[in-house]
Amino acid sequence: MRPIVVITYDEGDRCFKYINYGNTPAFSIKIDDVTLINTEGLRFDYVFPEEHILPQSREIRIENIKKKINDVVYETSTFELGALTPFSANRTFDVTIRYKNSENEEFITEGKVGQETFDFKRIKKIS
Asked: Where are the domains of the chain?
């Protein structure tokens, strides 16, 4: 009895979505920052918002994704997320999704996003 959370990209709605394939709700869902660029003098990350609850066997739209450039946070548009979307990404990125169940046990889902892929292979209980 546990949540299993992944993300997907809905091309029709032009948005990312969380999906809970588990049989219990997921709480405090958060994707670790996704780093696009990390070179001398420049760091560019996408920052995903925390979602408080995702019921079992449901999906929700991920809104208010921000970009962070050298620790300054900016709003984004759908167009600016193209580096992560499967049809326009030029590479893949490691993604870690963190969430809890109703008993406050922590889980992670790890995988890759971008360049025609949403590949989540590792789901692990961490506490």
From this structure: 5-125
